């Protein structure tokens, strides 16, 4: 009898295992299970509800202290912004000289051009002589170039985040890009920064400068103070591009055939429709007063914020290293480390990375301070 019960139990276990395997292979069951698990994330465990009233009262006091901490943290970020503004003025003469060299306004002397390579970059005398001959040969073959041709276009093409925005018809225009500057809001004004793109005379538009302004907030939201995690980009505004006739690369003309319902005749209709272009960057979606955006606009703005931040924090200060590719190698090393960290992070969600470019974006400002522990490239919703 005992042996019979044991055998029956084994069979039941095997049947249960087989049924479990079948269920886990059913996509509908898996989806329902995932939805149930997602609903549990962040939900209260019931522990707080079980606490005595007097303890809950003390917890509320701790929350009020936390709100005060958030307000102090906001002041900290405001002072960091002031430091950024102060040091931006110190960097600017160096950036201006960089622009003068790029655009052949200033020719650096021999002392300024001398660069001592790292130990890893040191070459033997034979290799140096060979490289010198190759350089002289190239100089003989080409006309004497002025400044550093296509400097900013090369930077854009070297960086995946920016090159993904470029279309073939954008490149001839970006050859005329002379400089990119970052301007911070004046003291006493709302926190913001503006990217200024300076162009030389060209056949595409009449603007000398194209601008993109990002408005920021560095204070806790009264309705959700515990969500404060550093400065948040609230919205952005572009500028009007004064395109010359027939040169607007953000639009394209298509022809469609239409058949008349009654007569059955066919006619060709010409329509102007939006065209993919880097210069759409200067026409971002507007954030309505309600703060409510559709999913496509929210994703587009999230990507826009990431690009604006990257230009401000990485490209403009370190442009020469992105031109040579040295900064890209460092970024790749950092990305490899971040991906390894993400794999070990139980809270990491790869779906967020797909949409926003980065789930947890960490960056250091020029003071060496971590400004954002998590992505601040999000639109503000009321």
From TrEMBL:
Q: Where is this region: Disordered?
A: 112-144, 327-352
- Composition bias type Basic and acidic residues, residue spans: 125-144
The UniProt regions of compositional bias labelled Acidic residues, in chain numbering, are 112-124, 327-347
Q: Which domain of life is it from?
A: Eukaryota
Name one process (GO BP) from the record: nucleosome assembly
Show the GO cellular component annotation of the record.
Answer: nucleus
Per the record, the similarity remark reads: Belongs to the nucleosome assembly protein (NAP) family.
Protein's name according to its UniProt entry: Nucleosome assembly protein 1-like 1
